[in-house]
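User: Here's a structure from my thesis project, written as structure tokens. My advisor, Dr. K., wants to see whether a designed sequence matches the one we expressed. Can you design one independently, without my sequence as a hint?
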């Protein structure tokens, strides 16, 4: 992880937020390559979940919502962690922190930070939602929350979307957006942060059909992660036990990815059968009906919901961990670091290099880069030895490197080097767009 964090900073993937001020706790900024990588990931999700289907509609609901939403959803009363404070060193811990010796509040309880006994407070419930104020008056009537999940924006818009699109149950609503949680134990780079992005889809089904759709979405979502190139051996399902189930869930499975090291297998996505909990709660709290009218059968019902909820940042970390490798190169003393990203999400699709800076090679390489740039993100590089230029692209996951050499200016062909196999093929310069386009599709 340390090597990855260092690469991410050095090559412009991910920086610590407000670094020049000493950083903001567990908040990260995406640099030029990171923003492309995460954008590609989100696009892949949007294409699979919305564009490629006729039964899912897109939505972009606001982050700030009516405060009653969070009472209805259960977040005001239930989205809490038990916390204890040390009166001596003023540090704060989760009450179930295994480093705490004894029972917090009791005289023998020992602070894991300063080691004092009897200074830990009893556990108090701490809500993980960020609060702010709407309007000029900062009183309790003006309190609003930064959403801790995007899902609620979908539930409150259920009828707006259904009626405006004339979708029939079963159908889904999908959205990508920021969520905020004042996590007590954030960390592990972008794994658990206080500001993050979710890609969520709520699928509305007839009661009784919910487990069938739950199984369907479990399989679909695992397939999507496989399609990203995440290694089969690093993926698994984890079924929630009765104790683990969230207050809204009737059944839940996590898609877990093996991050290695001390993290090991961890959740990257949750698939939940939420029953009619959310729509019923919003009907009760708002006093407005959120029922579906089943015209052919002339009856109304509150649909059940199957949710798929995946973190864009956590999946970004998964593809980075999955792709990172260091390897020896035959015949060369220096090894290479490679980010084996799936070509469809790689931030740069092709590096374009003139072998040397003379004999018309830079001019031809510039022409190729300019022509490709309007279709694909490409990077022109003419500095340093060709081997070093290849290494620089390997390290950021660029799947193809195009080199213009002596044969190119006379014969019109260039070499295309594959990042993973290191094989080079001669390709007609005029065919490059089609050649790379074809490779990106597979
Ligand atoms: N609407 C259901 C929901 O929010 P969740 O399991 O709390 O379920 C879903 O979150 C996904 O969001 C997780 O699988 C994870 O990928 C991502 N996620 C949750 N909290 C996160 C955090 N603090 N930092 C980064 N990603 C987070």
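Assistant: Designed independently from the structure alone:
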């Amino acid at each position: 992880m340390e090597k990855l964090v260092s690469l991410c900073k050095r090559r412009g993937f991910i920086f610590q937020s407000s670094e020049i001020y000493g950083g903001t706790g567990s908040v990260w900024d995406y640099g030029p390559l990171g923003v492309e990588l995460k954008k590609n990931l989100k696009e892949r999700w949007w294409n699979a979940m919305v564009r490629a289907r006729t039964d899912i509609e897109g939505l972009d609901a606001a982050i700030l919502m009516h405060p009653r939403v969070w009472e209805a959803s259960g977040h005001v009363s239930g989205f809490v962690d038990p916390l204890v404070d040390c009166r001596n060193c003023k540090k704060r811990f989760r009450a179930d922190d295994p480093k705490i010796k004894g029972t917090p509040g009791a005289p023998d309880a020992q602070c894991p930070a300063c080691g004092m006994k009897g200074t830990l407070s009893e556990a108090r419930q701490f809500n993980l939602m960020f609060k702010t104020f709407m309007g000029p008056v900062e009183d309790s009537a003006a309190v609003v929350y930064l959403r801790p999940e995007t899902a609620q924006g979908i539930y409150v818009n259920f009828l707006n979307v259904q009626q405006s699109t004339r979708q029939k149950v079963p159908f889904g609503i999908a959205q990508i957006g920021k969520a905020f949680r004042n996590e007590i134990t954030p960390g592990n780079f972008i794994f658990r942060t206080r500001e993050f992005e979710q890609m969520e889809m709520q699928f509305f089904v007839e009661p009784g059909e919910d487990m069938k759709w739950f199984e369907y979405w479990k399989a679909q979502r695992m397939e999507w992660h496989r399609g990203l190139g995440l290694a089969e051996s690093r993926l698994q399902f984890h079924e929630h036990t009765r104790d683990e189930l969230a207050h809204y869930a009737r059944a839940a499975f996590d898609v877990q990815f093996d991050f290695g090291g001390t993290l090991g297998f961890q959740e990257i996505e949750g698939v939940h059968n939420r029953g009619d909990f959310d729509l019923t709660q919003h009907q009760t709290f708002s006093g407005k009906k959120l029922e579906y009218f089943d015209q052919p059968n002339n009856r109304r019902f509150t649909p059940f919901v199957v949710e798929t909820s995946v973190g864009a940042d956590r999946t970004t970390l998964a593809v980075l961990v999955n792709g990172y490798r260091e390897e020896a190169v035959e015949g060369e003393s220096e090894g290479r670091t490679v980010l084996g990203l799936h070509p469809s999400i790689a931030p740069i699709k092709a590096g374009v290099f003139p072998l040397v800076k003379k004999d018309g090679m830079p001019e031809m390489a510039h022409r190729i880069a300019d022509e490709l740039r309007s279709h694909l993100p490409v990077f022109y590089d003419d500095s340093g030895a060709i081997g070093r230029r290849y290494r620089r692209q390997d390290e950021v996951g660029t799947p193809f490197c195009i080199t213009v050499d002596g044969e190119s200016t006379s014969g019109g062909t260039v070499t295309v080097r594959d990042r993973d196999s290191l094989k080079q093929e001669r390709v007609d310069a005029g065919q490059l767009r089609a050649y790379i386009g074809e490779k990106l599709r597979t």
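When you compare it with your expressed construct, this may help: The two ends are 29 Å apart (CA to CA).
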